[in-house]
Structures are given as C-alpha cells and as structure tokens.
Amino acid sequence: MENHIYKPVATLVILLILTHSASAATNTDFIRTSCSATTYPTLCYSSLSTHASAIQRSPMLLAHTALALTLDSARSTSAAVLKLSRRAGLTPREAAAMQDCMEELTDSVDQLSKSLAEMGQIKGSNYELVMSDIQTWVSAALTDDDTCMDGFAGKVMNGATKTAVRGKIVKVAHMTSNALALINTCAALHGRCINN
Which contiguous run of DSSP H or E holds residue 148? Predict the structure, then answer.
C-alpha cells in the first residue's frame, strides 16, 4: 500500500521539476530573443540571463534589470577610474583626461540613477512622458560614456592607463547601449509594456 502513495507524490515532484525547468528555459529564451535586438547581444544575455527567474517574460522587468545592472557597472567603473586617477606618475595629459572622464562618469551615473528611479514611477497615465524622459537620460549617459572614451583616443595616450580606463568604459558604454535598446523596445510597446 505504501508504494501506491509514493507513486503519485513522485509523479507530482517530477512534474513540478519539469514545469520549473520549462519555465526557466522559456524565460532565458525570452532574454536571448530580446537581447538579439541589441548591439551587444552576447553581453546583454550574459548579464541578464542570471536574472531570468525575476525577469520572467516581462519587457519592463527586462529593461529595469538591464538599467539597474548598467548603473551598478557605471558606479564601480567610476570608483575604479577615481582610484586610477590618484596614481602617481600620470602625465599632465593623462591627468586631464582622467579628470574629464570622472566628470562624464559622474554625469552618467546621475542620468542612470534618475532613469532607474523614474522607471519605478511609471503608471498608465504617465507612461509615454516618463519613458521619453528615461530614453533621453539613458541616451545622455551613453554620450557621457563615449565622451570619456574620446579623451583616451589617439596615439598621444598609450600604455596601461589608457588600456585600463578604456576597457572599463567600453563595458559600461556597451551595457548602456543595450539597456537603451531594451528601453526603446519597451517604449515602443506603449502602455502594454507595464502590463507584461
């Protein structure tokens, strides 16, 4: 008789595991498909796929998560560039580029922070206005990232400082670009993005 009780329970456990696995696969497929529309799909997927269970298949949660991860990356990059800027032995050109870059990164972090805060305030009645503001601010953050990189362009600056800073800024710029693409996709859905 005991055997008859365990079969339905075992079957239920197996079904739950399969359902969870299928749901997780569907969520990661949603992220992979959404990321394919970005400029840097591999980075997009690798940074967002670990959040698949929270994102599920929501364009809004996907855009929100991408923006939050981008803000985290911008903050850590800003701290790393600040640390690099305090190193002894920088040439006057490197010191000036680092100072300019720090200002741009501070602006980028502010724009991304403002965007993330606004994303949490979206309602049906203010959707298009708020999304437009977010698109503008994230686009400005991307411009800030690009302007920072411009300070390290050319052959005048070579070496470890240029390599270290550009590598960090490039990643932030790529993440910002991806977040903007996902935000643009969400904006194109109009009010349907908050309901998905």
Answer: helix 127-150
